[in-house]
Structures are given as structure tokens and as C-alpha cells.
Amino acid sequence: MRHVIALDVGGTGMKAALVGAGGELLHRARRATGRERGPDAVVESILAFAAELRAHGEHHLGEPAAAAGVAVPGIVDADRGVAAYSANLGWRDVPLRDLLSRRLSGAPVALGHDVRTGGLAEGRLGAGKGADRFLFVPLGTGIAGAIGIEGRVEAGAHGFAGEIGHVVVRPGGAPCPCGQAGCLERYASAAAVSEAWAEASGDPEADAADCARAVTSGEPNAVRIWQEAVDALADGLVTALTLLDPRTIIVGGGLAEAGDTLFTPLRDAVRQRLTFQKPPSVVPAALGDTAGCLGAGLLAWDLLDTTDRSEVTA
Question: Of 29, 78, 153, 292, which is most buried with the most CB atoms under 10 A?
Fold first, then answer.
């Protein structure tokens, strides 16, 4: 059966699947990245995992994978197939596409940025399905974004499109590791809410989920911290809305797991800030932590479709 390898590389673990032409998941697996052993070991873990997946397909599906799609964090040069930089994984300028293709006996490989790849899946298969323009914003340790246009995700001229977490929403505010002050992710990420609630509650182990639970019980400090995060997020989203005019804004990541505790005040806050802009649908992401892996599979099938069309017209 014809299939592709889909591989989503995270800071500590990797999720993978063999994906059929209709998007069906034919096999799923997980592995640790082994980042404690250094960046070279991480790369070797990825290559070995991909080779294992190829062998599984050959043995159980009758043929090796026709292509592979890989989503990685950090700065990615998708055109050159280079994983340029990742603070979490410690690598710089890794020619991952070529390394993987060689390990996979010459199979074509597509390399993508993890958030944009997850956004691709949410746009085609998840909460943005049917929307011609969408913005995918996962709220995790940081905040990133993916700009969806007619079934594809815009990377920008230099691969930095969608970095909504570094839109300044509080000028002169908290310093950000990016070098600016007052960035959105310093106020509305799951990490920012966790930090604020841990300090306010006096519990160093408290996190954003604990804060959300305290909000539902009406704890005043939790309500204040949560509303500050919602207001900052609404400011950032309305800035993006004004520039991009998406039909749908998809919010994912850890903070979105709070459900209506987040989405009810967030929709209200966005609506209150609109003047001439058309209100978008603000919806939770649908695919959870499978988005990156599903998106990697889409990258691989898109690559095969492009290759097949090129061969027909040649």
C-alpha cells in the first residue's frame, strides 16, 4: 500500500505515523529525542527512527514509504531543507532533508516548521476545514502562529511569518528573550500564566491549568491574572486580524484546554476591540497533539503530488 512517513519532532519526544493517501493512520509510534546526549545524538535519533518506520512499512504494507514529511521546532529553512536553529534541541544548520533522504534510500523528504505544519493540518483537516483564510495560534511555552491561505500556510520571505508571540502588546513591559519588551507571549502564553499564578498563589508548582480551575471558583487573583492574559491575547489577535483579515482564528495549545473559561471571555474581548474589522470565528483547535504529525503527512503527500505533476509535464 502506498504511504508516507510523517514525523513530528518536539523538544523531548517524537511522534510519527505511516499515513495512507486518504489520510488514514496506518501505524503510529513515539520515541524520545535523546536531547540530553547532545544535538548530534538528536539528529541520529531522528534518522534511526525514520529508518525504523521505513522498514515497518516495507514489512507490513508491502513497500517502503514513497516520501517523508518532518516537522521540527525552531528556525527552519524549508526551501533548502535545513533545520537552521533550535534552542531546545541545540542544533544549528542541520541539512536534515538531505540526511533523511539518504537514510531513506533516496525517498523525497519535505521539511517544515512545527507550528506551520500543525496549522496546515488544522486548516485542512481540523478546526479550519473549509475556511479560505485562517490564523492558527497555539498557546504553549511561547506563542507562535500559522497563516493559512487557500489550503497552504504562508512562511514569509524569510520563514518568520506568523510570529504573533513577538507582537508588542505592552510597550515597555516585561523583557522578552527575543530582545524586545512587552511581547504577547510574555503575558498570554501558558508559561506566562503559570509563572504569574505560581507567584500569586505561593505555590511554585502551580501552573496555568491550576489558575484556570481557580478562575472557575472565583479566586480574585486568578481572575485578575486570567483577565490580563485574555486582554493581552485579544490585543494581539486584533492586530493580526487587522493585518490579515482571517475568516477563522484557531486557538490551540495548553491554555486552550481551559475551554469556555478561555474562549468565552476571549471572544468578548476580541469583539469589544473591533471597529471596522469583520469579526472572525474564534474556535478551539480540533486535532490536539496529533496536528504536527498529521501536518507532516500532508507535507509528504504534497511533495509527491508536486513531483508527480512535474513528471507528467516533463
Answer: 292
